[in-house]
Structures are given as structure tokens and as C-alpha cells.
Amino acid sequence: MTPRFFFHLYSHKIFFWLFVATFGCQIFFWKETEKVRADFDIIPPAPNKYVVSAASLGDKEFLFRVLVTRLQNSGDIFAGFVALKDYDYSRIYDWMKSLDTLNPRSRLVPSLASYYYSQTQNPADATKIIDYLEEHSVANLDANWWWLFQALYIAKRLGDFDRALDLAQKMAQNNAKDAPLWTKQMPAFIAEEKGDGCVAFSVIQKLIAESDSGKRQISAEEMDFMRYFISNRLKHLKNNKFDPRRCSKTL
Amino acid sequence: MNSILRYILRNGLRDRLYLGLFITLAVAFAISIFLGSTMFVEQRQTTAAYIAGSSRAILAVGMILFVCLSVSRAFESKEVEFIISKSISREQFILGYLAGFFLAAFLIFIPLVAAILLVTKANFSGLIIWSSTLLCELLIVICFSLLASMILKNSFSAIMASFAFYMISRLMGMFTMAIDLPEDFAAAKNHLLATILKILSAIFPRLDLFTQSSWLVYEINDLDNLKIIFLQSLIYIPLMIFMAFHDFKRKQF
């Protein structure tokens, strides 16, 4: 019997058993890989600038919106939601910085940082959000003073009054037309809360001096509020034996 | 030439170009509105950016497929030979085809712009600039697709060449950025990469500057890019038309 004739006689059986063997291989393969799961990162590493530039195909705004959607929905998995304390905040920080290179004007990323990611149960992670908000705001303070206020608020909530005061002093330097007077008064409020009467006294004194010299127009209502602030806190300062003459002149 | 124009428009109807693109655009609009509405803030702006980005890509891909398949079919079915056997010059033939494709694109483009205005309530000046640069982008893509179909004849090769052209032109922003690589890296590579990228950037148009979604979202402050876009279109469209003339003149039937 020649091989050709043998193949002609038994080919249907050969192919049947080949089919059975490959099917068996597939079942074996499935059994071995059943437990293999795709890698799932809540937050993958932030894309670098070359990847961002290539992926945008010239349309940065479109890619920005796609990536912000990804950042907003990260941790939203089929089984439920991941607690914010389990997120890698250094990656979130990198993502936010990367997104700022695509669109520094949008309110989306600072909103996500201020109102969502700052709610983490891990206080150390929230400092990364403060870092981002500070860097985002300082780049264009007049347009972004509100985000600096949010950073200040988070720092205050964490009990980091030194950082809050530093941020308040930065916020007070804004020249935005739409910024209310309290952005200038904020260092006084924070310093007073911190127990530093000198700074509070100095900030309010400076604002009143600017009003008297005509450098700054302060409405009667705002002046009333400052007087209220002074009279309300004067008692507290007196109790602490606060003496403005002992404050440094450099304040 | 009028009959060629009518023939191309009917081709679009026969190939279900208009219906296919309208359905795809409608789906893209629906997904964009849904994704936009899920955003934390700036829902309208996000919807506008999604619609702008997706509809640009859909129109470009749709027109590439339509042009390449129509021209290849015309060659295969000997329609080209039949038309040029009439009293029509080869230049008129190409211009007739181009005008037909431009008009077909325009028929989809007008309702698209109206729908974007209606859905996103984009600022009017931004929409005008976005849509006029989209039109320029489509004209360049159509011209290249026609040229590729004329030269390559095979529809698959023409489609792949047109997609590659579109992708590379859209990546040109990254290429020009990569030309300024750190000096040590460039020296290590003996400037080869930078030289290749420079040559590519000289040949391909800067489509990465065209049709920015941000124009629908924010006010336009920088008009310099617009000058580049319109000058680029003014140079590149005739360049490809003349290439097509030259190639078609040399063809033997």
C-alpha cells in the first residue's frame, strides 16, 4: 500500500483525530491560562510628551478630553469602585501635569483635583493634589486664583497651616479684576487661625493703608467687615497679650 | 464635465456614501453627547471636542474610501477609457472628478456644520474657522486619494497609501518636535533620524495644524496658524492636481 493510497483511504480519520488532538490542546491551554488575568492598573503611568504628541494627531484638545475622561473614570471597574486611598497619587499627579501641557485653560483637571481626588482617605496623598493645584495656579495666577484657594483649603483641612499661609500669601498677590477682596485678606484669616497675630495684623493694616492712600478701592461693606474682623478678634488677641509693636517691621 | 460631476454624485448615492457617513456621524454625535454628559464639569466643551475630533476622522476616512474605490472601479470597468474617448481633455477629466468629489464632500459637510452648531452651541467665529480648515483638510485628502488611485490603480494599495499619507501628515507636529532631539541622542544617531524627519516634513503637508477642536471650545487668539493653514492648502492642492495631470498625461490606454 503506497502512502498516497493510505492517505486516500484514511484521510477522514486522520483529520478527525487531528481535530480531536487540537481541541484537546485548546482545552489544556484554557485550563492552564484560566487564572491568568489581564494586568489592571487603576491609574497607568502618565503618557510622556512624545506619546501625547503622536496620539493627538495634531488635535490636542480632542486627546485632552479623551484622557481626562480616562482620569475621571479611573477606578470605576465592573465589580464596583476602588477607594481613593488605593490610588497611586504620584501617578495621578503625573497625569494632571501631563494634561496641563495639552490644555492649561480647562477647569476640568483642577476641578477633578480639588473636588474629587482631594477627598482621599490618605492625607499624605492629598499633599500631591496641593502641589499640583499650586503649580497649576502659579503658572497663571490671575486666571487661576480660585484653584490656589482650593489648595489652601485642602492644606487647612489637613491641619498644615504653614502651607496654607504660604498659599494664601501667594493668592494675595493676584491682580485679577474678578478676584474678591478676601483673596487679599486670606493670609490674615489663616495667620489668625494659626495664632500668628502679627501677620493677621499686618495684612489688614496694609489693606487699610492702601484704602486710605487711594491705591485700592475698598467698598464700605468690605471696610465694615474688616472692622468687624478686627473687633471680633481683638479680644482674643488681648487675651494672648498680643502687642503689635513687637511685630517685625518686615512683615 | 457636468456629466462627470453628476456621475460622481450619483456614485456617492449608489455606494451609499451619504447614508453611510450620516449614520456613522449620527452614532459619533450620540456617543460624544453621552461621554460629554458624564463629565464632572465642562460637559458642553467636552461634547464639542469629541464631536469635532470624531467627525473630522470619519469624514477623512469616508472620503479616502469613496475616492479610492470609485477611481479604481472606473479603471477596472473601463469607464475611464470610455470617458476620455469622448471630446474631453485629460485635464478636464481629472478636474471633473475632483469637482465631483469636492461637491460630494461638501454635501455631507454642510449638514455636519449645522448639526455641530445646533448641538454644541459653539462660538460662531470658532466654528467658521474650524469648518473652513476642515474643508481645506478634506480637499487635500481628496486630492491625494485621487492621485494615489491614478498612480497605483489597485484600490487596496491606494487606500493604504492615502491612510499612510493622512496619518503621517497628522503626525507632522510630532516629527517636527522630534527633529529637535537632545544633542547627545542626535549625535549618537549621526543625525540620521533628524534628517529623515526633516525630509518627510518638507514633503508632507502640516495637517496637524488643521481643524483644531479647541477652536470650538475657546476663543482663537493666535491667527498665525491660520495663515499657515490657508497657504499650505493653496500650495498643496495645486501641487497634487498638477502631479495627477502629469501622471494621467503619460498613461497609455
Q: Which structural class is indicated by helix and strand composition of chain B?
A: mainly alpha
Count of helix runs of chain B = 12
Strand content of chain B: under 5%
Low-confidence segments of chain B, given as residue ranges, are: none
The chain-level mean pLDDT of chain B equals 89
**Which pair of chains has the greatest number of interface residues, and how are they split between the two chains?**
A-B, 27 and 32 residues
**Could you give the count of β-strands of chain B?**
0
Distance between the termini of chain A: 109 Å
Overall pLDDT of chain A: 84
SSE run of chain B: HHHHHHHHHHHH
Shape of chain A: elongated
Could you characterize what this model shows?
The complex is a heterodimer of chains A (251) and B (253). With 251 residues, chain A is mostly helical. Chain A is built from 11 helices and 2 strands; from the N terminus they run H-H-H-E-E-H-H-H-H-H-H-H-H. In chain A, helix 3 packs antiparallel against helix 4 and helix 4 runs parallel beside helix 6. The model of chain A has no long low-confidence stretch (mean pLDDT 84). Chain B has helices spanning 2-14, 17-37, 43-76, 79-84, 90-120, 124-152, 155-170, 172-179, 183-188, 192-203, 214-217, 224-250. With 253 residues, chain B is an all-alpha fold. In chain B, helix 2 (17-37) packs parallel to helix 5, helix 3 (43-76) packs parallel to helix 6 and helix 5 runs antiparallel to helix 12 (224-250). The A-B interface holds A 50, 53-54, 56-66, 68-69, 72-73, 103, 105-108, 111-112, 115-116 and B 35, 38-42, 45-46, 49-50, 52-54, 56, 167, 170-174, 177-178, 207-214, 217-218.
In a nutshell, what does this entry contain?
Chain A is mainly α.
What tags apply to this protein structure?
heterodimer; A: 251 residues; mainly alpha; two-stranded antiparallel sheet; elongated; B: 253 residues; 12 helices; 0% strand
